[in-house]
Give the backbone structure.
Amino acid sequence: MLEETIAAIRPADARALAEARSHQDRLTKPPGALGVLEEVAVRLAGAARTSPPPMPEPAALAIFAADHGVHAQGVSPWPQEVTQQMVANFLAGGAVANAFAAQVGASVTVVDVGVAADLPPASGLMIKKVGYGTADLSLGPAMTEAQAVQALEAGISVARTLIADGARCLITGDMGIANTTASAALIAAFTGTDAAAVTGRGTGVDDSTHTLKIAVVRRALDANAAASTPLSTLAALGGFEHAAIAGFILGGAAARVPVILDGVIAGAAALAAHALSPSVADHCVAGHRSAEPGHAVALAHLGLRPLVDLELRLGEGTGGLLAHPLVCAAVRVMHDVATFDAAGVTEKPS
Ligand SMILES: Cc1cc2ncn([C@H]3O[C@H](COP(=O)(O)O)[C@@H](O)[C@H]3O)c2cc1C
Ligand SMILES: O=C(O)c1cccnc1
């Protein structure tokens, strides 16, 4: 399934990009007046291979949940059980992601790819467990390559299911206590950046824990220095949710359904997806830039410009959800706004 998905991903279509750019310039506004929104609409046209691109709605958020062996190193102030407790909260509709999803009209699906407990079946929960938490990445590989493939394929199958159910925009979400440590390790490895520059405070660690966290990321990079392929790097340093989110992004791109990326966890996962299939970036929109320092590094490597910066540092898909109305507005311009010709508005003399 992974190989077939990667084979189906195509880079942006040059003709659709050119058509979308010239359409933007014929609309009743000064050329470029919609700034970054024009780039978003053009980008989605290239990815969809048609201009104007289809409206990116309805949107579906998938929150991939998993636990992390590296939690044992003391990198997060929160107990590991918070992962499963937050899954219950998502399913009950009580998290910030639920409030934002309701605000923008997105569906919410929670996917257990590796929570360290057996979760009771519930509506809105998909169980695609690869393990009960990863191994400690500061001591060796977090998972085997076979587990990484299983998690990637779990993400692909969630993308396929949501698209088959009608989603025309996918939004990434995550839940996993200690996953900002794995994110920092992935970003350092995939971008060749020093651990100190990409390791942040996650849920809000103090100075001494932040220093420890940087040392743990360094140890993880040393312990896994043998990982040299995209898959082995993802397996060595990632969490099950990172691998599943990477698969979810690949699955959206293969189906030409745009993917709005959330924060630093999504950014780290997107680096893995991009290493497996570089064209995948043409299908992604960076919803926001989070306060985690590694996020900007990941987005720069992917060539993606974040739509908003609200200093969010939550995850769950919250930043991706908030960007969805902006992406819809950008595309709606292409569908609804009159051209100079059609509206009888005089163009600027050239
Ligand atoms: C109550 C609560 C709700 C959350 N929702 C998302 N996260 C976020 O924080 C975690 C990563 O931060 P760290 O690496 O510092 O543990 C992830 O689970 C992420 O989704 C939460 C964290 C907590 C505590
Ligand atoms: O920026 C993020 O995406 C983030 C920050 C802290 C915890 N979880 C996610």
In short: Residues 76, 78, 82, 86, 174-181, 202-203, 314-316 surround alpha-ribazole-5'-phosphate (ligand 1) (CB under 6 Å). The beta strands are 59-66, 107-114, 125-127, 169-175, 259-261, 284-286. The domain at 2-54+333-343 is CATH 1.10.1610.10 (5,6-Dimethylbenzimidazole Phosphoribosyltransferase; Chain: A; domain 1). The first strand starts at residue 59 and ends at 66.
